[in-house]
Amino acid sequence: MPSLKDLRNRIASVKATRKITKAMQMVAAAKLRRAQEAATAARPYAERMDRLLANLNRRANKENAPRLLVGTGKDDVHLLIVMTAERGLCGGFNSNIAKLARQDAQRLLAAGKTVKILSVGRKGADNLRRSYGRQIVDRVDLRGLKQIGFDTAGAIADKVVAMFEAGEFDVATVYFSEFKSVITQKPTALQIIPAKLPEDAAQAIAGGHAAIYEYEPGENEILSELLPRNIASQIFRGLLENAASEQGARMSAMDSATRNAGDMIDKLTLRYNRQRQANITKELIEIISGAEAL
Questions:
Q1: Rg for the chain (alpha carbons), in Å?
Q2: Distance between CA atoms of 212 and 56, rounded to whole angstroms?
Q3: Sequence-distant (≥ 6) Cβ neighbours of residue 251 within 8 angstroms
Q4: Active site residue 187
């Protein structure tokens, strides 16, 4: 049975932990609003560009169209771009993204495909290293970045495009967590090479007429600029969604930790008071027994 001093030390320790989790909750809440606004603002542009290029892919001539648009014609080698956070203490945010990527990797390997993993963020590599350490071909470190900008996404996109042009993969898919609310973040897989039309848009086009595009000054000149930019835009969208989801998940996790610390403090305080009362009662009994013996 712990002594009163041990209980006092433990109560003080839990109180100190509660102060830390409360501070982390407030910091995450302060960062969440800006991150949420940035993620929400990036969605329409990225979604529209993805649909436009996916529609072009659907109509393009596979023989002379750019490979970034229509792909290599094979799907033997898949690149999984797993984007997670650099830090933990944010609930299941990192593990849920890694879990989705792990499930797809298992499915692809079972189908006889080759899987390569590009990890963006330390936690993704940590989660996947044990099962798919050999498949991790590169890692992008986001530590030290005060704010995620388009330059960061552009550098990752350049790396992906260079790998594709070198023939290192056929299909590229980005994994990130789409921000829904403070308590809800949805792990998402988005194919960026070649561009894939969403199911709802595909059904709408199938029921109607596909748009016809006219290029000025020329198709190849425009697509050579537009296709790499689309990859950077989709990666940038994923990074912004991740930033908002991370802060929302951390805010929720720290709120739960703060409440749990409060419950533990109440239980320890009750236990401390009971043991203190028992010690006082025991001492009184010993004093009374000694007096009666005299």
A1: 28
A2: 9
A3: 25, 28, 29, 32, 182
A4: no
Question: Which residues of the chain fall below pLDDT 70?
Answer: 59-62, 197-213, 215, 218-220, 294
Q: Which helix (H) or strand (E) holds 26?
A: helix 4-59
Q: Which residues does 102 contact at the CB level (< 8 Å), separation at least 6?
A: 127, 128, 131, 132
| Tens-digit pLDDT profile for residues 124-137 | 888 998 889 899 99
- Rounded to whole angstroms, the Cα distance separating 180 from 206 reads 29
Give the CA count within 13 Å in the CB-facing half-sphere of 18: 15
Cα distance between residue 177 and residue 190, in whole Å: 11
Q: Which one of the listed residues 42, 53, 90, 243 is annotated catalytic? A: 90
- Give the angle 188-191-196 at the CA atoms, nearest 5°: 120
Q: What is the pTM of this model?
A: 0.84
Long-range CB contacts (within 8 A, 24+) of 261-267: 261/14, 261/15, 261/17, 261/18, 261/21, 262/18, 264/14, 265/11, 265/14, 265/15, 265/18
